[in-house]
# Entry
Amino acid sequence: MTSETPSENRWETSIGRGVVLLILGILFLIFTLSGVIALSIIAGCALLIFGLAMLAEGIKNIKCHGALYIVLGILVAILGILAIANWEFFAIFAAYLIAVISLFIGIYAIIVGISGNAPSGNRAANIILGIVAILFAISIFVLKAFAPAFIVTVIGIFLIIYGILIIVRGASSKKKNAEIKS
# Structure
């Protein structure tokens, strides 16, 4: 048995996570429609569970904002059920919601970058991020019914890139650990 410290075997975990993300990214690119369905159903299940938890919290604390939690819990649970039952509608709804949020993030990032409220060196990054976020939002609005597939494709690309970065980081950690041991 070897007595490795946690820092000595972290590279294995990094490489493993990177491989999983890489595989997920490739699957999202190959099976885009399945990715849309899976993400919609997972989001629906999460909303249903969250709604039921809010409902239980509202019943438990009926005297202190309980009625609000009960109403919100019921509404969120219904949204979760609708997302599971009608994933096509929910996917398009979620895509438009993502587009609106992305648009606001883009506008805010540009304002922060231009106004000088960003830390020095981050002004240009904020402006670039803002432009990319706005272009992403516009793409979703233009694509309409194809927007969920576009989002899943973008997620797949990011998963592949992030997976590769984590694998490289894990491999470099392995090399550093080997150099330290010798």
